[in-house]
Amino acid sequence: MNERVVIIGGGFGGLYAAKRLKNAPVEVTLIDRRNHHLFQPLLYQVATGALSPADIATPLRRLLKRQRNARVLLGEVVGFDVENKQVILTDGAVDYDTLIVAAGSGKNYFGNDQWRDNAPGLKTVEDATEIRRRILVAFEAAERTSDPEKVRAWLTFVVIGGGPTGVEMAGSLAEIARETLRDGFHSINPSDARIVLVQSGDRILPTYPPELSAKATEALERLGVEVRTGVKVTDVQERRVTVSNADGAQDIPARTILWTAGVQASPLGKRLADATGAPLDRGGRVIVEPDLSLPGHPEIFVIGDLAHFAHQTGEPLPGVAQVAIQQGCHVARVIRRRLAGRRVTPFHYRDLGNLAIVNRGMAVADMGRVRLAGRLPWQLWLFIHLMYQMDIENRVLVFVQWLWNYVTRGRSALLITERDQLAASSQAPTSLKLVTSTGAFLRVKDTNS
Amino acid sequence: MNERVVIIGGGFGGLYAAKRLKNAPVEVTLIDRRNHHLFQPLLYQVATGALSPADIATPLRRLLKRQRNARVLLGEVVGFDVENKQVILTDGAVDYDTLIVAAGSGKNYFGNDQWRDNAPGLKTVEDATEIRRRILVAFEAAERTSDPEKVRAWLTFVVIGGGPTGVEMAGSLAEIARETLRDGFHSINPSDARIVLVQSGDRILPTYPPELSAKATEALERLGVEVRTGVKVTDVQERRVTVSNADGAQDIPARTILWTAGVQASPLGKRLADATGAPLDRGGRVIVEPDLSLPGHPEIFVIGDLAHFAHQTGEPLPGVAQVAIQQGCHVARVIRRRLAGRRVTPFHYRDLGNLAIVNRGMAVADMGRVRLAGRLPWQLWLFIHLMYQMDIENRVLVFVQWLWNYVTRGRSALLITERDQLAASSQAPTSLKLVTSTGAFLRVKDTNS
Q: What is the ipTM of this complex?
């Protein structure tokens, strides 16, 4: 029987590992909780109504359909039996000879998990449609409210976290308010929306060179975004965010609060550490050997956001797609070489540069000595994010929508859908639930007369 | 002050009425619970993964953005105060001089509302994504099950109702099983799926001429659909449907059951009848005067699925888009003529013909003496469903996806998304919930070895 390779997680790392094992003398089983690979770097465009979920999500079965030695299992991994070389699922177990754990990361509220409901993060398709719903409902609620203070709170959007996702979200929110929704409302002017980007460090995009952070800040401020650096979020309530710095604390009344501040390794990292004795870092990531395997367990690899790999520069590699992709490809190569009886090489990360988008026509690029801001890196960003789409269909769909949105300065998917499907099927009032639960509205006729 | 026209419902009827009042000396307020107009005739394509929700849903504000005399109110109507000419919302009231009620219809389980959870119907975007989820989860669950009887139940799809929606759904399910998912599974062959279309009457498409019903039946049977006419559904459970005819009752074990059998007028019809004394028919529709107004209330109109209009042929007009569109246009014309002091004409429905699609390349058309089945009516169907898209963007998106799907014989949006968003944000197991709640699985390693 061929070597059984089990891969946990259908993100960039897991999927590239599976694909690079095509034609190898192995049986690949890819396990994921979801039926699709999600192109995470464009998820913020779903959250801001520029793309539909299906544009950036591709069924794993379709992606691996032509690969004879791979199968997909929709399943939830709950633990590991490394003695018997088994992955434990909620409803069964799968045997492996080699295991690749690419379970990724989730949101990190730094011990304040009670903030989660008031400040959703952006990791899944559902997160994105929920954030889209909140943004659109906020404008609708503001339109119906006559108390100026409440209108102000509905039109205040606070984005917590000044990394690439926070910058993208703040830039997109500014575009939605100033361009997409410009007409169409009567009682409010969407352009009045206040968008606040809160960053605890002293500059946004802290992993980029300072001059690019400055360019991004300038661009955001031109869009009317308030960039507040050096302030910590100390509390998040349903209707306000509390931020603090050396001068004291301040409340920002806001009804839409988005969390992009931290990621936390999948809890499977902890389970794997318990089972193998592998060390974890403070973020819950598994500290891996130079070849990405675990100490004492050459048959287990950890890659992507869940892996802490610091052998190259002393610093752990960042949780970005290109790291996961390169690690997935590396592990596939290691497995092939081992089976061929050849020497295994350590992983070497080749940084191809980093791009962060601010808004239409503006991105920053850090490619070692070459540092760019403006239209050229923006075009590069578009190109790369099209080319790395996993299948040609997504590429076409994303391209068509981008072209359309670019020409019309619109957004294709400004859809409020239900939070709770069951409520919908029993014909309960819909998005209005959120609106009316505020008790904030005067009689509508007042605003109508 | 200009005459205040309040329209309840942003479906075909309400939207066409609003648009045809452009430049009239009125103030239009369009009230809807949802922020978007939904192109209902293509909703089954979302349920079967061919289109994304945003492809067929357009924000009402965008559609009315260039119409100065119209505003959109996201609101839930709960009643009417016809004395004071007010529409009562959950959180306020809106004054009208003229009222157009176009609140549409929901699903009718004929007194068996307990069937709703086991046999969802297709009315909203959420219904469509929930049905899509169930269809895709069924194949995944079958792939993981080893008990042949349980595999059979997961691979059995029962569509209740042989009208156009039931026929579309059955045809699409057959295409999904025989073409779209053909490769990609290992333990099962999706082509083995059993698709049963249950119709209580003696033929499917009962509103079409018998020869077209026969053509549609033939086409479905060629696709491997079991068309069962003259059988009534007497019970729907989570894992089976009971059907009965003169020969007795029979259980069909099935895990995916879809309801397309009946529509019921919006409950607002009853509230309006209580408030005005207008008569209702058995389906809860409001029986309207020849000009679509209510008896004794020339300032209130009811149009679309909620209206019972039988002045033309003695039979009420069917609940289809072209009736709603023509009625919306008519009411706008009546309002304009009244304001101009001109005579009001009765509504006259002009039947432009009916088209029902079966599958790729096959539709039936009933246009009076001209009756067609096959490729030509299918092309006509595609053309009409593109041309009636409310804005050019949806037209482009739908066109591109259709072209793509046609060329690749694939489907763009085979996405399993969460039923419950809150579960997702707390990182609970996802679609698996449904799968694992069956307790049906053996250890996965059994099927792996």
A: 0.82
